[in-house]
Amino acid sequence: MGSLGSEFDAISEALARAFGNEPPSSPVAIDPFRNLLRLVLDAQRGLRVDQAIEALDRAGWSDDPEALSAVDPQELSDLLRDPRGKVPAGVVPLLLRIASWVRDHGGMDALGAIDTETLRDELRSIRGIGSTTANRILLEVLRRPTFPISRSDYRILIRHGWIDPGAEETEAREVVEGTVADDPDAMLRLAFWFESLARFCKATAPRCDRCPLQPFLPEGGPLDPE
Ligand code: SF4
Fold this sequence. Notes:
Blueprint: H1 8-19, H2 32-42, H3 49-59, H4 65-69, H5 73-80, H6 91-105, H7 108-111, H8 116-125, H9 131-141, H10 151-159, H11 169-177, H12 184-197
Helix pairs in contact: 2-3, 2-6, 2-9, 5-6, 8-9
């Protein structure tokens, strides 16, 4: 059974044929704080992200961490209320916490001087920011070569025998990061490919016969992720 690293060139070719070879476009350089907010909101259930971002734009808070961090929570809650009058629990304090974190560092540009491990630890210590979201922020907003492992990514890695079923998230992430070290564009493309594989690699039953990774399965087929 090969490792992800040893078969990576052939795997990349197969995935590029199936899903294309361009890294997803990234507008983050233009408006990084707005994109950070979008990514954080995207991870919340029951929220219309586009409407929430537009409301923050109108209020002038989507590009100003200092202003957002000082907003009255009730005012922010009123702004984000959907047509049914609801705001998902935890969204308002989470936005205030993330804005305060950026403000305390002196703005988005200042984050560029901080090493990746420190940023990862700090992001994960913010209540409401999970490991996948922290790593997505690192990759998609701060352009650090890190790989945000989702549940379906984890499942794919186990089914191919590229990690052990009991592997920690950090170990799984490092296995993937080792294939395209220090290249955020390559990492973005890889994350897009893995996301595209999720439609085949369902939790209940993998559809390997239609999947571009089928030639890279272990002998005997996919391993059990449980
Ligand atoms: S070949 Fe099967 S196990 Fe591998 S990613 Fe595709 S669906 Fe999942």
